[in-house]
Amino acid sequence: MEQYLSVKNINKFFGDFQALNNVSFDVKEGEFVCILGPSGCGKTTLLRVIAGLESQSEGLINQNNKDISLRGEQQRVALARALVTSPNLLLLDEPSAGLSPVAINEVFKTIKEINEKNVSILLVEQNAKRALKFSNRGYVLDQGRNAYQGEGVELLNDPRVVDLYLGKL
Length: 169
Ligand SMILES: Nc1ncnc2c1ncn2[C@@H]1O[C@H](COP(=O)(O)OP(=O)(O)OP(=O)(O)O)[C@@H](O)[C@H]1O
Ligand SMILES: [Mg+2]
Fold this sequence. Notes:
Helix content: 25-40%
CATH class: Alpha Beta
Bound molecules: adenosine-5'-triphosphate, magnesium ion
CATH architecture: 3-Layer(aba) Sandwich
Radius of gyration: 15 Å
Order of helices and strands: EEEHEEHEHEHEEHH
Number of strands: 9
Strand order of the largest sheet: 6-7-3-8-9
Number of helices: 6
C-alpha cells in the first residue's frame, strides 16, 4: 500500500503549553488508522492540524506526496476544504460520542463500508476496543507524544497499553 498521509515531527504550542511534541505517523492508501489516548493528550489538536484548521508550530505533513504544511491563511483554508471534501481520506473525531450502543454500531459499520471503498480513515476514538477492532493500525498518544503504535490486535493485547492508555475496554 502506498503512503497516503505522512506526518513528521509535528510540534504544536498554545502559548507556552506544548500540546503536540514530535508526533509522527502515517496512513497508507486505503488504510484504517485510529488515534487513541487519554483525554487531553492531543488527539483533536492533531486532527485539526492535519485538516489545516490549526497551524502546527513545526513539522511536515504530506498528503499524496504533496507538502501540505500550510504556508498562509488562504492556502490553509483551501487545503482544509480539499482535505475535508477529499474522497480519499476521512478524518473523524469521536464519531461515536454520546450515541446509544445501537447507533455506535451503525456508525462503525458505515465507516467500515466507506473504508472498503478504498477511502483511508483516520479515526480519533475514546471507544478504544471498538476502534482497534475495526482499524488496521493504531497510534496511542500520551501527553502530546507518540507512546505506542501497532496493529489493532497487537495493541489490544498489550497490557501496558490497556492499563495505561485504553481505559475504556
Ligand atoms: N486552543 C487551545 N488553546 C490552548 N490550549 C489548548 C487549545 N486546544 C487544546 N488545548 C490543550 O491542548 C491539550 C490537548 O487538547 P486536545 O483537545 O487535542 O486533547 P484530546 O486528546 O482531543 O482530548 P479529549 O479526549 O478530551 O477530546 C489539552 O491540554 C488542551 O487543554
Ligand atoms: Mg478531543
